[in-house]
Backbone:
């Protein structure tokens, strides 16, 4: 079992330093050209890979140009345009409703506050954080997706299970200047090494400070189950 640093603050700083060295070009992988496209891409990315979303939005963003196009589109047609995306029927409804609200209440512009964003259909705190950070350059939290959730528990940065509670813990220990980048680093490392089912702990830059390191630890702290 790896040995975490003495405090969670020290542990978080070391995690950031090592992952930043390992993934110097880490950034958001969704493709978009404006705030509305970003919002739609993030809505679509729930329980779906960014690769699949990017493949779908390539033609979607060519067909629909602005909130009015989505708001006026028949929901069944919009759903058909998204049919390779998980939960495409629900997401079509979210996108249509969200664009109607943007037109009616925000003069056609994607809002720039957490409260206004989370009032939109299909938009929770995670989605709002992504849009704020990459659409408005506003960083007021940490995006907690499945990779961040898994890595932060495995690395002993939190014992919480719910994303909102994990985010609160991380905001107390991750340097504020790295709140945005922390997510991208975790995503890259989660995809490359610290996967959900079979992490490559033998080739992990964090293994010596990870209390979940496979082969040494009997427990995966992300799930609480035995390896």
Residues:
């Amino acid at each position: 079992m790896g040995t975490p640093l003495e405090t969670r603050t020290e542990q978080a700083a070391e995690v950031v330093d090592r992952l930043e060295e390992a993934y110097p070009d880490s950034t958001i992988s969704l493709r978009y050209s404006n705030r509305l496209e970003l919002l739609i891409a993030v809505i679509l990315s729930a329980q779906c890979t960014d690769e699949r979303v990017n493949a779908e939005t390539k033609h979607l963003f060519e067909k629909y140009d602005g909130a009015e196009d989505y708001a006026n589109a028949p929901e069944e047609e919009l759903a058909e345009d998204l049919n390779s995306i998980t939960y495409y029927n629900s997401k079509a409804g979210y996108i249509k409703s969200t664009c109607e609200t943007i037109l009616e209440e925000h003069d056609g512009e994607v809002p720039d506050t957490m409260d206004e964003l989370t009032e939109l259909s299909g938009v929770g705190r995670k989605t709002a954080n992504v849009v704020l950070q990459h659409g408005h350059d506003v960083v007021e939290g940490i995006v907690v997706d499945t990779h961040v959730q898994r890595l932060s528990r495995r690395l002993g940065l939190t014992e919480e299970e719910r994303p909102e509670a994990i985010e609160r813990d991380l905001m107390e220990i991750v340097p504020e200047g790295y709140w945005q980048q922390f997510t991208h680093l975790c995503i890259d490392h989660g995809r490359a090494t610290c996967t959900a089912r079979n992490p490559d702990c033998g080739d992990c830059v964090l293994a010596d400070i990870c209390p979940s390191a496979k082969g040494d630890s009997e427990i995966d702290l992300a799930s609480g189950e035995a390896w």
